[in-house]
Amino acid sequence: MSDETLTLEQRKRLQEQVLVKHHLANILTHWFNVAMWLLLLPTGIGILLEKTYPASSTAWNDLMRQIFGSTASLIYWHGVWGQIWIAVLTFNIFVGFRKYFLTFASTRMLLDKDDLRWLMIKPWHMLGLRKHVPLPPQDAYNAGQKLYSYLVVIGSFWIGLTGMIMVYSEHIPTSWQWVIQWAMPIHFLSAGITFAGVIIHVYMGAIFPEERQAFFSMFTGKVNGLYAYLHHRKWYLRKMAEKAAWEAEYRRRYREPAQAEAPQASTAPGTASADAPAGD
Amino acid sequence: MSDQPTERVPRLNRRKFLQAAGLAGTGVAIVGSGVGDIRRAEAGGSVGHLPGSYADKIVPTLCEMCVWRCGVRAKVIDGVIEKLEGNPDHPHSEGYLCARGQAGLMMTYDEDRVLEPLMRVGERGSGRFRKVSWDEALDYVADKMLKIKENFGPEAMVFSSTHNLSQPLFENLLYGYGSPNYGTQRSLCFNAMVTAHLLTYGIEEPARRYEGMNYIILTGRNLFGGISTSETRALMQRIAEGAHVVYLDPRFSETAAKAAEWLPIKPGTDSAFILALIHVMIRDELYDKWFVSQYTVGFDELAEGVQDYTPAWAARITEIPEATIYRIAHEFAENRPNAFAHPGWRTSNFINSFHTERAIAILNALQGLCPQQGDCMFLSEASVELGKPPQPGYPPIRAARLDGVPWKYKFVPPKLGVFQELRDAILSGEPYQAHGWFIARQNPMMSLPERQKTRAAFQKLGLVVVMDIIMNDSAWYADVVLPEASYLERYDPLHPVGRRVFLRQPVIEPRGQSRSALWIYKQLGERLGLGDYFQYEDEEDYLRQQLKPWTERLGITLDQLKQTGYFEVPDGYEGPTYRWDTPSGKVELASETLRNAGYDAIPRWYDPPEPGENEFYLLTGKVGQHTQFATQNNAYLHEVRPTNQLWMHPSKAAERGIANGDRVRVTSPAGSVEIEVWLTEGIRPDCVYLTPGFGHESRGLRKAFGRGAADSDLHLTFTDPISGGQALTQTFVTVEKV
Amino acid sequence: MADIKKYGFVIDPRRCIDCRACLVACRAEWNTPPGQTRIWVHTDGPQGIFPAVTQTWVPVQCHHCEDPWCVDACPTGATFKREDGLVLIDEEACIGCGLCVNACPYQVRFRNEVTGKADKCNACFHRVDRGELPACVATCIGGARLFGDFNDPESPVSRAIKDQVVYRPITPEVDTGPMTYYLSPPDASAVQVSPQPRKDLPAEVFWRKWAIPIVKVAVGATFLGQAGAFILQLLRGENEYEDGAV
Ligand code: HEM
Ligand code: SF4
Ligand code: SF4
Ligand code: SF4
């Protein structure tokens, strides 16, 4: 993304800037989700017997059963954790529906024209081709991340739904038994595909050096201006504009003398002061 | 009692199961330590229902699902009876229980149990009752009974009950009150068998022995449908070991399927078959000459009397080939002493059934089945004598019995009676009018032929009292219903079997307000001023008085008995041993008693009536899943035998355009019913068959109501003058498609 | 060898009198819901033409197969085979999907309407473990049902089949190794007693044919992709990027 040359001074100024990318709620929810996946994935794979549905290994099946004492308690705990996972996520979504979820969904999931272009160019870049075509500027999340969010939201929905069907299967009448029968492969498929996405996601988040900033942001909530400017320019510029507007409003309200230097957010990077209000 | 669990509901109780299985803490507990034998742990987790065999408590008691009275071990969990097992200590069960015995717990937990005394508020038969207290119900009944006695004499009150351990107390009630009118259902069942054996051997119910038997003739005794656990098992064991069973029955029953030979004999001709066997045995000198000369009277008369009953003659009558009859006679004799003819049980088929039974009794005598006294095939079981509470003699009875015993039916023992005559006398008012009927554990509305007559007889009475555990069809028409405790909830008097004495004891507290017969009879007796006949404080006191001689001699106590379920009397304490209680003291091949009464001294052939052109014999019989009319509402038995069907031969069905499963109308002069038909090659074309016990009309039996059809709607009333037995197969019916 | 048991049934239809004591005993022991049973007595009705009529009753329950298809079908391992040969269901591990019900070639399984779990004969293992007989065998009036350890030559089942022609309900297509030995040919009710070839359910087919391969490819591809990228990253080094943490 170093398609644009920045001066050293610009870079320094940008590096000193701090932008808040994630709310605490977001961070906590994310790591809760991660924790639950760490519990659910191994147990889930442990339940499915290799001899019947070769998606696990007998050694793993046995290990999990040894740890939990029996198939029944392995399934029991997978079900309990799964329900906690569903309950907390649902709760968070509902509690923060207006404040967080809608804003998240609209600004970090909706794809715009730039995103579509990005999606058409990025694959070539990944293959090392057409490097000369610049990527369009991205918002807080790039189009790939947005797509991944879809995958996670839809995947989680199906995992949760089918999981609940299986946990409460005994209340499903036998004439509706096909629902249970289909719940199993759908649960497996949703978890599997989401997990495939998670593999890339984890790589990008934790290992891929360019995204190092993003990784730390998932703990601190913050990123520096340079990263934001280079990777999420639309977001960066919007943030700056918001901040300028906020500062102008502040000054107007408290009748402070106008600053000589007007914010240049729309023209040059790194000019607004730090500590912009959090959020999108 | 309100916190007593009353329903037997599926239970999901994992923790308890694990404890019971000894698996708690083996790693299956939810936060498992992760060690331990996983497979076993899983086995522990593998059931939600706590199986019946995990009992907190096992109580030995006696079955009452039929009159065989097997020994039971009742398993109880949390005050709920969960499973019944056959008691290996009891010679009638030998550790086994039939379907009915296994299902016994559902009598106790029947959702249609009557749990409070009821008094009728609507019309008779409207089924509208109100719940009342025991005091109100008993005061009412006693008051009415005393009024009947005052106005019409004690004979105007009819009492009927059946083959129960509490029968002595029932008899105290009836004879203490002063009525001669004692009704049992036995004339619908085994009167012919009992009277014939009384007149031949002086024994009511000959014992059967299967050990070593190689050749067995069963004259309609369907032991695999009418199951008596130990006897049924013994017969099957013999069959498996190669015994040859000859089975006579117009219908291909379960026993027919297992017999070496099924002879679909023409109905009503069994006596011809047996007489021909006797003929051959005498003619060919195949009988046991030593025994006959030593222990019988009337042989010459018999020999002369059966002269004409040749196999050829019998073949024409019975439709069994002459050669077959001849061969069976020879085989039967050749297998002596390991061959016998079963005396039968429900022998109420034709008016000539008494002769069949006499012939069977004689056939066995010719076989010499009692080589020495004391080792007699036909020996009734010796029984242990017990104590009983003191009681005064009964008041003298002046009135004649309504059922004609003995003034019309000389040879019918009073305790058997002629039930159908009793009903007819209530209806006709002859020789006098009855005004009240006390019915205990009986269902005449279903059992008696011509149900419409029984219904009409009920309407003639000012008082009908029914004591039962469910709202049976007769209770439906009663004025007062007294809820008896089920056999798993009550004590009954002791039951001696051979040298052992068995106890029926409550496994759980009685549900609702139900009470034991011992309690009910005593309460009613006291209100009738008959307290002296019921000199016991409670059930346990009665039992202690029964046990008293053995407490004194052997130190046996009731508490001991409650634990073990029985006690055994050692050698030397048996009751009186065997004797042939006949006037001659011998086996009476020819009976002077019968001759003096104007009947045949030896059995003779009498032509039974035959159906007309378009008619069928209406056969009746037993199934192994129900007992008479009492068990059709049992949830478990309902499950395995929910209804009855009319058996019919396909050839006759085709003539009438009837297909398998069609609904047909069956009509007799007595009435008509509609029922589903089952076409089978396993029945004579001139017969149809209907299992009794279905077609209940009490809406208080929610499972059984309206299922199948009742043979009592079809049967006509015919009575054998000698045994008083009802002739159930003498009813002929027509069948047409509806 | 001596320690490991091999449990199974020996059934002699010639001794079965259709009394149904076994059916009721099972129902009472396990409190199975009305309309559902773990045990049957099959018959084709009377055969032949009057008066040459015969009839056979064939007792049937789960055969505790040596190679049970039900166990193979169960995704969770709720249905399993114990070391002693009994095929059991861990109700708490069962999700009531009914794949096993469909898989059993003998149709002896059902979904319990009360518990919502798979259900079938478990040979009253709790009784057997205490040295008692299964409830049906213990009360079989005709003596048609035997149960015991085939590894013990003195057990009633071993003795019953010794020198006898035995019949196992198998066909050339379907042989799950049923551990029920019939002592006379179960020719009556042959249709009900003999095994049916397997037909997979649509969900099962989807699972095996689609879900598993798709997930394997997806997870495999992404994993290989990121592994490749990681190797490249190591080879190229990270210095190229300058926006790293301060
Ligand atoms: C150890 C494993 C994981 C790591 C290191 C990780 C790391 C991250 C990071 C760094 C971000 C922020 C990206 C950005 O700000 O541009 C993020 C976001 C996200 N991650 Fe993960 N993640 C992990 C596992 C998962 C799993 C298992 C899921 C779901 C199945 C998941 C779902 C998401 C989603 C939906 C987002 C975007 C929403 C948000 O910002 O909260 N992550 N993850
Ligand atoms: S009979 Fe059916 S349920 Fe029983 S073990 Fe065999 S395959 Fe499984
Ligand atoms: S119903 Fe239960 S036992 Fe049967 S396959 Fe499904 S999970 Fe396994
Ligand atoms: S209990 Fe025995 S004889 Fe009776 S039906 Fe069952 S298998 Fe047959």
Layout of secondary structure:
The complex is a heterotrimer of chains A (280), B (738) and C (246).
Chain A: H1 8-16, E1 18-20, H2 24-47, H3 58-68, H4 71-95, H5 97-108, H6 113-126, H7 143-167, H8 177-207, H9 212-220, E2 222-224, H10 225-231, H11 233-254
Antiparallel strand pairs in A: 1-2
Helix pairs in contact in A: 1-10, 2-3, 2-4, 3-4, 4-5, 4-7, 7-8, 10-11
Chain B: H1 14-20, H2 38-45, E1 57-62, E2 71-77, E3 80-86, H3 99-102, H4 105-108, E4 118-120, E5 129-131, H5 134-152, E6 157-161, H6 167-177, E7 182-183, H7 191-201, E8 215-219, H8 229-240, E9 244-248, H9 254-258, E10 261-263, H10 270-283, H11 289-295, E11 296-297, H12 299-305, H13 311-318, H14 322-334, E12 339-342, H15 353-366, H16 419-428, E13 436-440, H17 444-447, H18 451-459, E14 463-468, H19 473-476, E15 480-483, E16 492-497, E17 500-504, H20 517-527, H21 539-554, H22 558-564, E18 566-568, E19 587-588, H23 592-596, E20 616-620, H24 635-640, E21 646-648, H25 650-655, E22 663-668, E23 671-679, E24 687-690, E25 732-737
Parallel strand pairs in B: 6-7, 6-13, 8-9, 8-12, 9-10, 11-19, 13-14, 14-15, 20-24, 21-23
Antiparallel strand pairs in B: 1-2, 2-3, 4-5, 4-15, 16-17, 17-18, 20-25, 22-23, 22-25
Chain C: E1 7-11, H1 21-30, E2 40-42, E3 47-49, E4 52-54, E5 58-60, H2 69-73, E6 79-81, E7 87-89, H3 99-103, E8 110-111, E9 118-119, H4 125-128, H5 135-138, E10 145-149, H6 156-161, E11 180-182, H7 190-193, H8 202-236
Parallel strand pairs in C: 1-11
Antiparallel strand pairs in C: 1-10, 2-5, 3-4, 6-7, 8-9
CATH class identity of the largest domain in chain C: Alpha Beta
Q: How are the strands ordered across the major sheet of chain A?
A: 1-2
Largest interface, with counts of residues having CB < 8 Å to the other chain, equals: B-C, 66 and 58 residues
What's the helix count of chain C? Answer: 8
Structural class of chain A: mainly alpha
- What fold name stands as the CATH topology of the largest domain in chain C? Alpha-Beta Plaits
Coarse shape of chain C: elongated
CA gyration radius of chain A, whole angstroms: 23 Å
Give the amount of beta strand of chain C, in percent.
5-15%
List of distinct ligands in this structure: protoporphyrin IX containing FE, iron/sulfur cluster
Helix-strand category of chain C = alpha+beta
Instruction: Please give the count of helices of chain A.
Output: 11
**What's the domain count of chain C?**
2
Helix content of chain A: 55-70%
Record field, number of beta strands of chain A = 2
Taking the sheet with the most strands of chain C, its summary is: 3 strands, mixed
The overall pLDDT of chain A, averaged over residues, is: 82
Q: Say which CATH homologous superfamily of chain A is assigned.
A: Transmembrane di-heme cytochromes, Chain C
Could you state the oligomeric state of the chains shown? Answer: heterotrimer
| Series of secondary-structure elements of chain A, N-terminal to C-terminal | HEHHHHHHHHEHH
- Over the alpha carbons, how many angstroms does the gyration radius of chain C reach? 25 Å
